[in-house]
Amino acid sequence: MEQRVFGGTGKEVPVLGQGTWQMEEDDRDEAIRSLRAGLDLGLTHVDTAELYGHGRVEESIVSEAIAGRRKEVFLVSKVMPSNATYAGTLTACERSLKRLRTDWLDCYLLHWPGSHPLAETVRAFEKLVADGKIRSWGVSNFAVADLDELLTLTKPERIACNQVLYHLEERAIEHAVLPWCEERGVAVVGYSPFGNGRFPKPSSPGGRVLDAIARAHDATPRQVALQFLVRRPSLFAIPKASRVAHLRDNAAAVSLKLTSEELARIDAAFPTGAYSDQLPVI
Ligand code: NAP
Question: Is the C-beta atom of 190 inside 6 A of ligand 1?
Answer without folding.
Answer: no
